[in-house]
Amino acid sequence: MVYLSAPVPQVSPSQFPSPQLLSNPLASPTKPATGRREKKSLDYVVRTFLAGGIAGCAAKTVVAPMDRVKILFQSSNPHFVKYTGTFWGVLFAGREIYQSTGVRGLFQGHMATLLRIFPYAAIKFVAYEQFKNILVHSKAADTPGKNFVAGSLAGLSSVFCTYPLELIRVRMAYEVTHSGKGPGVYDTFRGILREGSTGDAPRIRLGNLYRGFALTVLGVIPYAGVSFWTHSFVQDWIRAHFPHQILPTDDPHSKPRLKAIPELISGGIAGAVAQTVSYPIEVTRRRVQVRGAISPENNKIKMKEVVKQIYRNKGITGFFVGLSIGYLKVAPLGAVSFYTYERMKWVLDV
């Protein structure tokens, strides 16, 4: 009998799973020390795009019912004005929506939200990483201030690309029906394009899709910038004072990631601080966006007049209508968004 022998391949010990991972399959693995992935490469951009888009959709789905009520409050919808100004108003408003239109009513306009938020969040995080790559050349240079600049520029980039979808979403959320079926994306889109037109053959006005855009630009700088700045600042503070909350890593080129709870906390604080800074601009922007839905003649009212009208009706507090629900919304929104993004980057190895 003839025995054929074959060479036995040599296996490096590093190819075996770590004892920690074998003893605890749910333990978070450390990222291999493969060096930095080239941030300008198409591969990096695509992976970051996916991570950001998924993070945005996950966060918006969690807070969709509160987002619907907040838009109704901010735009002074006549059916829900009676609930504004009280902390429990959001619960009463949500109950009325649920009783009249069911769960569908709480998520009215959410499909348009997802259609907008995936590219919005994806572009925002991709742009943030690219601007940060230009500004930050070492781990020591990764400061909250540079995160503010990168975040502001990223916010401007994403809002420019996706603003028409945001306007459609707000219009859909503003409409209140008792049938449980709100206006569709196409009908809302067509209605916006034809606002201000007269005659049997209404003209299409593409500029209508960017109504309120100037206010959005003014608002996105403090919101996006402060959000990334606060997130970076809180993370650095946690790393400095709670080193046991840091996950192990072999990557010497970037700051170590945090465990789940501190990551969620830093994202929640970032969202709350950013919301406070930018809220007055957001309220004014909502009024500008929905004025055409109330009456086409309202589109002739200038932005300055909208601000005066808000102040005359409710004073300074008018610019903070719905802020309580804003806090209830942006804390989980920021927490889920940043947490999901960081974990998706880990899964996609970026």
TrEMBL record:
Task: For this UniProt record, give its keywords in alphabetical order, as a comma-separated list.
Answer: Membrane, Mitochondrion, Mitochondrion inner membrane, Repeat, Transmembrane, Transmembrane helix, Transport
- The UniProt annotation puts the region (Disordered) at 1-35
Taxonomic source organism:
Basidiobolus meristosporus CBS 931.73
Q: Which residues form a coiled coil?
A: none
Give the family, as the similarity comment puts it.
Belongs to the mitochondrial carrier (TC 2.A.29) family.
Provide the protein name.
Answer: Mitochondrial carrier
Q: Does the keyword Hydrolase apply?
A: no
Q: Which PROSITE patterns match?
A: SOLCAR
What GO biological process terms are annotated to this protein in UniProt? transmembrane transport
Compositional bias (Low complexity) spans? Answer: 1-26
Q: Where in the cell is it found?
A: Mitochondrion inner membrane
Tell me the superkingdom of the source: Eukaryota
Q: GO CC: one term?
A: mitochondrial inner membrane
Predominantly, its location class is mitochondrion
Q: Which Pfam families match?
A: Mito_carr (PF00153)
Q: Where are the Solcar repeats?
A: 43-134, 142-237, 258-347
**Its membrane topology:** Multi-pass membrane protein
- Quote the Gene3D superfamilies the UniProt record gives: Mitochondrial carrier domain (1.50.40.10)
